[in-house]
Amino acid sequence: MNKREQAILPLLLGQLCLPTMKRQWEEIALEANEKGWSGPRYLATLCEYEVAERDRRRLSKRMSEAKLPKAKGLESYDFSVVKGVTKEQIAGLSSGEVWIKGGVNVLIFGPSGTGKTHLASAIGEKLVENGAKVFFSRTTELVQKLQSAKKSLTLPSALDKLDKYDCLILDDFGYAQKDELETSVLFELICERYERRSMLITCNQPFGDWEHIFVNKQMAVAAIDRLVHNAFILELDAESYRKKQAFERLGGKISEAQKGSGDGSKVYYDRPKLE
To answer: What letters, b where the CB count within 10 A reaches 16 and e where it falls short, cover 37-50?
Structure first.
């Protein structure tokens, strides 16, 4: 390769928006000369580097946009202490193949401290790695943003922005306030995504208590019916991780009553009954 080609090639690669090829063409050219590669093989290798780097940047961007909690991967989830869910089930859901494309929901119920957030985040992380667009939010935080949007008459635009996500993860659904404006925007969000875009919801409140989340029983029943239609429902039953860790930190100095256990007696699937 002459000096002119050496000078012009980086400029051309820059104009074509191929930064990885621009950065690595000389190094790969040396390897190609040493190993006697053909022109097509050299070019194909450069293209492979460019595509791999674009995929890496795309994944990094999607992961950043997802806003998932840190250090909540599937590898660190302890399935041995949780009843009601298996590693194989979560692996299947994490691929997204059986529910994301159909706009199906996943609902994770369980007492406080049983790893619902960890599990939801772990599923979300794997979904992103498999190419899905995911957004994680505390339910109360997202509802407040939608509430502000409704007050400023920009709710349709806000819902459109959320529509780009294949899966919307709403954590701590049971902590939403029973306020007419808040629950109305939450209900609109559920209706907007119904059978089109998936939602993954974690909640420590059984369906029978959802009348405390929504303004009235009719709205609660309507929300539940939309969410559970063809949904995957997981019920976690385990001792609270947080209580267990506190117990271990204190060297067993707190009582068994304080240590507590998961409330496995709750029935999470019963809908509120209309009177």
So the answer is: beeeebeebbeebb
C-alpha of 61 from chain center? 14
Q: What is the pLDDT of residue 23?
A: 93
- Give the CA angle between residues 203, 206, 208 to the nearest 5°: 140
Read off the pLDDT of residues 216-254 as tens digits, 9 standing for 90 and up.
888 989 999 999 998 999 999 866 544 444 444 444 443
Rounded Cα gap, residues 141 and 45, in angstroms: 46
Distances (CA, A) of 62 to 126, 135, 138, 231: 12, 9, 18, 25
From the number of C-beta atoms within 10 Å of its C-beta (0-12, 13-18, 19+), residue 241 rates as middle
d(CA 65, CA 4): 43
**pLDDT tens digit sequence for 96-141:** 999 999 999 999 999 988 899 999 999 999 999 999 999 999 999 9
Work out the end-to-end distance of the chain between its first and last CA atoms, rounded to an integer number of angstroms.
Answer: 84
For the entire predicted model, the pTM comes to: 0.81
Structure tokens at 77: 């989830």
